[in-house]
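REQUEST FORM: STRUCTURE PREDICTION
Request ID: SP-0412
Submitted by: Lab K.M.
Chain count: 1
Length (residues): 89
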Amino acid sequence: MDALAARLVELQAPRLRVDIGGLARGYRSLEGLDPEGVTSLLREMLESLAVTYPYPEGPVQIIALWPGTISRPVRREVLAEVQSEVQHG
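STATUS: Completed
RESULT:
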C-alpha cells in the first residue's frame, strides 16, 4: 500500500481511479494531499471497495489519472493490477 501511495505522490497524479472488471468503481482527487494523506485515502478507498465488491469479477486496477483537455487526451497509468479469484458461497 505504501509503495502505491509513494508512486502516486512521485507521479504527482491529481486523480486516483480504481477499476473492477474494467469498470470505474472509485474516483478521488489527490490534489492538496501530503504523502500521508494519499496513503490514507488509498487505504480507505480500497477498504470501502472491498466491502462493496467482496468477490470482484475481473481484474482490480489502481490507476493514476491526469485530466485531459480538448487538445490533450486523458493520461492514465496503471500502477497495480490484481486478478481476482471469484469465490461464491
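NOTES: Helices lie at 2-11, 35-52.
Reviewed by: T.R.
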